[in-house]
Amino acid sequence: MSFRPDRAPLSGRIVLVTGAHGGLGSAASKACAQAGATVVLLGRKVRQLEKLHDAIAAIAKAPVLYPLDLEGASPDDFAELAARIDDAYGRLDGILHCAADFRGLTPIEHTEPSAFARAMHVNVTAPAWLTQACLPVLRKSNDASVVFVVDDLERVSSAYWGAYGLAQHARVGLVSMLHAELANSPIRVAGLQPGPMRTGLRAKAFVDDMDRDARDPAFAAQACVELLSPMGVAFNGEIANGATGELE
């Protein structure tokens, strides 16, 4: 999808996308760039980030690469990220949290403690630290938006979803908590439940013939753009349902 410059909903905005080389992260990064944003691509796989950079540069303003592995990142690493964005742009207008860790359906009884800790850290602790570090830079925007991509809580509350399932509940709680704390600031906070998508992460739980309802991640990319744009004000503090391709 392309926009006229005078109608691009993210025109002039600086948007950070985590897990940018993943299924939804990649589609959303492209959509945000086409909507006029300068996109900061954060991810741990440098070669995939470089390929995404080139793909975006061919259709919109070239994005910025920021290789970082959330699993090993410390609060100091996130503080440095925020400082670099501040130095380069003087503000941050949005964060889209797409990064996720899920290694497959496993009984908690048989889950390695390190795998459990990794999933909780990448899915909850790291995005919380990153958001915390970026709040001062987000406050410099007249209209900033933080969006957490979340899974279907009813589905991931069932057996074998382990730390990933628990983390999804925590992400939803984080949306509510941050919304309440930032109510008198220019920062909006929302969640997006995009519905079933054909991604590498989902393939670890479902085989193709059991997952015919899953859509291309590009189907949910426009919902990400809307939540990051001024239109997202209608979903401030809420978990928006993007399963139909339109926010509900």
UniProtKB/TrEMBL annotation:
Keywords assigned by UniProt, alphabetized: Oxidoreductase
Database matches in InterPro entries: NAD(P)-bd_dom_sf (IPR036291), SDR_fam (IPR002347)
Residues of the signal peptide: none
UniProt GO molecular function: oxidoreductase activity
Cellular component, GO annotation: membrane
Coiled-coil zones: none
Xref: Pfam families: adh_short (PF00106)
Similarity field: Belongs to the short-chain dehydrogenases/reductases (SDR) family.
Entry protein name: Short-chain dehydrogenase/reductase SDR
Organism lineage string: Bacteria, Pseudomonadati, Pseudomonadota, Gammaproteobacteria, Lysobacterales
